[in-house]
Specification:
Strand content: under 5%
Helix content: over 70%
Number of helices: 11
Shape: globular
Largest sheet: none
Length: about 240
């Protein structure tokens, strides 16, 4: 029974991945789906607002936990349907729930083997595990804000180090929220673009959403650097015990 409980999270994860890929549902995670079915999605959201929002939260959490690529299009769809604030908060919450699923895989099924590997490794896994163990909230927060850092590597590392859940979840949600609001802002502006041009090219989309995309770039580079500088300043000015 102990072995069963240990491998259950990984088995559920692999079953979810196999189901999505086997049914071919991953091909719907694209801008084409929003272009072809956006009007129907919008009508459904207007008629059943709460139910559609809850369904999107559950779907996003499951897809995040299943590590299927292309989930960013769900974020854009949330912005298209619910606007930047409701969509951003909902998808950030969903991604946090999905991250919790990977956390438990790292803590149960993969915990022992990855902990031994991290202990003798000097690469990225070792550095991430060490950072999570040293200061869970600040490390996870900065890592989430740097959207180029592998999302699930942080989740696995937090599980491997058995990071305390409260700071891990709080840092995950807060760290994901700015980028999700930006992506939902992009999604909320797609309605007007698709009405004018049903088949927009990447160049026109980039021109239309240049400022939101620059905001994501800011989150990736300047904001984490600023947070690290603030953390160092707080460390230098922290009163010493007498």
């Amino acid at each position: 029974m102990t072995l069963f409980r240990r491998f259950l999270p990984l088995a559920v994860l692999l079953a979810g991945v196999a189901l999505v890929l086997g049914m071919g549902w991953n091909r719907y995670l694209s801008l084409d789906t929003l272009r072809d079915h956006g009007a129907a999605f919008k009508a459904m959201a207007e008629q059943h607002y709460v139910l559609t929002l809850l369904g999107l939260v559950v779907l996003f959490a499951l897809l995040t936990a299943s590590v299927i690529p292309g989930v960013v299009f769900i974020t854009i769809t949330a912005g298209y349907l619910f606007g930047p604030w409701v969509g951003g908060i909902a998808t950030a919450l969903s991604a946090t729930l999905g991250a919790l699923g990977i956390y438990y895989v790292g803590r149960t099924t993969l915990g022992d083997s990855l902990r031994r590997r991290a202990a003798r490794d000097t690469g990225l896994l070792h550095r991430v595990c060490e950072g999570v163990d040293r200061n869970t909230f600040w490390y996870v927060l900065v890592a989430r804000l740097v959207v180029s850092v592998p999302f699930h590597l942080i989740n696995v590392a937090a599980g491997v180090m058995a990071a305390p859940l409260r700071p891990y979840l709080a840092a995950t949600f807060i760290g994901l929220l700015p980028a999700h609001i930006i992506y939902c802002w992009i999604g909320s502006g797609l309605n007007d673009i698709l009405l004018k041009d049903p088949d927009p090219d990447l160049q026109s989309l980039f021109a239309e959403f240049m400022w939101p995309l620059l905001g994501v770039a800011f989150l990736s580079m300047l904001l984490p650097l600023s947070l690290k500088l603030v953390q160092k300043w707080r460390g230098r000015h922290r009163p010493t015990a007498r």
